[in-house]
Specification:
The structure holds two protein chains of two kinds.
Chain A (H helix, E strand, L loop, with lengths): L1 H11 L7 H7 L1 H4 L8 H19 L4 H28 L9 E2 L32 E2 L6 H9 L3 E5 L5 H12 L4 E5 L7 E5 L2 E5 L6 H9 L20
Helix pairs in contact in A: 1-2
Chain B lengths: L1 H6 L9 H29 L6 H26 L3 H28 L35 H9 L2 H27 L5 H27 L6
Helix pairs in contact in B: 3-4, 3-5, 3-6, 5-6, 6-7
The chains are: A alpha/beta, B mainly alpha.
Chain lengths: ~240, ~220
């Protein structure tokens, strides 16, 4: 392409090889090799007058304009495609149906009991000791579990009357998935509730496919307050 | 543009723009090709959620996390300098590597976990069913009972148990790193996996020697 442009331009100029246009098109590399084109003022004047005649006769098909706008179109298409691609991956999780999000600012460490305004809690002041991730068969202390949420864990809670086969299924899933906790939670208003820091989803069954969606989106997800913090080495018992 | 051509019909329009236009077209064309190449290479470099790179990053993070945990435990159980130094080294190296692998997943925009289970990228079926510890069971990982035993063992006994557990842990870690080396062309992943193979291999030799020094049978 650049060869064509270069060989077209010289045809119109008396002295081939030094068209001003050709030089600036190739840019940096050629500027060092241009001692031959010292009388650039005279040359460019000749260049200006010569193509004017040709241009008048050749103007019928504006290939330059066509190419220019085609190229602009391509750039826009590529840019849009790229932006779309970026968004699609980063917005995952935001589309989970029924997901409740709430901004949680308070990250204080307290040793006293905390009154939380959601059940189970999804953030707020918490105990200095985090709850280790894993499967528990009795209820956990809120203040410890909230600390694990701060570390990027997902806490799966279930009503104690959840059918045993679903408990087994959840236990297997939590057992095989790092940064998750499972515990029964008396008094829940849904059979299974998934909680992360500032995020909550209530489902009617452990088989709901949003369980996996929630895990993919929020296990060490973007809501994590302390990325890299551990979910072991803390409180190991309920 | 239209305003200019109306004002000076014949003089301004026909001449210079043609050459300049060609230049602009050329420059823009170069930019487009560059942009297209960038997008193309980024897309082909960006691993899939189900692919070996992402699977390795997730599973090796879990595997490493347990090595870090065991190393903290043994440092609480013994005052033996070589064992404490080895544990210190493993904690720092593997914890930092977890950070690198987490950053990959962040950069690739992929989930940090696969609820379908670990090691599927290696052709293993999802584990599950009876596994209870967080992180599930992968080859080389200590069981909760073994971790509990380590947490209670006194001095020399803790050292030898730690060495035995960590040799098995490292062997499986080397196997996992070799598995990803055979499955990826990603330079970042290849580089880290290769250092894991070499580093852990060397540590296995070191630990086998330490085990012998303590009069314990080899693993």
């Amino acid at each position: 392409m650049s060869k064509n442009a270069r060989s077209n331009a010289p045809k119109n100029t008396p002295n081939k090889g030094k068209p001003a246009a050709g030089k600036s098109a190739t840019g940096k590399p050629s500027t060092g090799k241009s001692p031959a084109g010292k009388p650039s003022a005279g040359k460019s004047a000749a260049g200006k007058s010569a193509p004017r005649k040709n241009a008048l006769t050749e103007r019928q098909t504006p290939w330059g304009t066509i190419a220019f706008f085609t190229v602009i179109g391509l750039v826009v298409a590529v840019a849009i495609g790229f932006a779309f691609n970026q968004n699609r991956s980063s917005a995952a999780g935001a589309k989970i149906e029924g997901l409740v999000s709430k901004e949680e600012k308070n990250r204080d460490h307290v040793k006293t009991p905390v009154k939380y305004d959601t059940n189970p809690p999804i953030g707020g002041a918490h105990d200095p000791l985090w709850q280790n991730c894993g499967v528990y068969t009795s209820a956990l202390r809120n203040e410890n579990a909230v600390h694990s949420l701060e570390h990027g864990a997902v806490w799966i809670t279930y009503r104690p009357d959840l059918p045993q086969d679903q408990v087994v299924k959840l236990s297997a899933k939590v057992g095989a998935t790092a940064y998750t906790l499972l515990s029964p939670y008396p008094g829940l208003d849904a059979p299974v509730v998934l909680s992360a820091w500032g995020k909550q989803l209530k489902v009617q069954s452990a088989n709901d496919e949003r369980v996996d969606e929630f895990l993919r989106a929020f296990v060490q997800g973007p809501q994590t307050q302390e990325p890299g913090a551990a979910c072991s080495g803390g409180k190991a018992t309920a | 543009m239209t305003a200019v051509s109306e004002a000076e019909p014949a003089a301004a329009v026909p001449g210079p723009p043609r050459g300049r236009r060609t230049i602009i077209v050329l420059v823009v064309a170069v930019l487009v090709v560059a942009a297209a190449l960038t997008v193309w290479t980024q897309r082909s470099d960006k691993p899939a959620s189900e692919g070996p790179e992402a699977g390795f990053a997730r599973d090796m993070s879990v595997h490493h996390a347990q090595a870090v945990e065991m190393s903290f435990i043994v440092r609480d159980r013994t005052q033996d300098k070589p064992v404490r130094l080895l544990a210190y080294d493993i904690i720092n190296t593997q914890r930092a590597q977890i950070g690198m692998m987490t950053a990959w997943l962040d950069g690739w925009g992929l989930p940090k976990t696969d609820p379908a289970g670990p090691m599927r990228w290696m052709g293993h079926g999802g584990h599950g069913g009876t596994s209870l510890p967080a992180g599930g069971s992968m080859p080389g990982m200590a069981t909760p009972a073994q971790l509990a035993e380590l947490g209670k063992a006194p001095g020399r006994q803790a050292e030898t148990l730690y060495l035995r557990l960590m040799i098995a842990h490292h062997r499986a870690g080397v196997a996992m790193a070799e598995a990803v080396l055979g499955r990826t062309g990603n330079a970042q992943v290849t580089r880290l996996a290769r250092t894991m193979v070499e580093g852990q291999q060397a540590e296995i030799t070191l630990m086998e020697g330490m085990l012998t020094e303590r009069g314990a049978p080899p693993v």
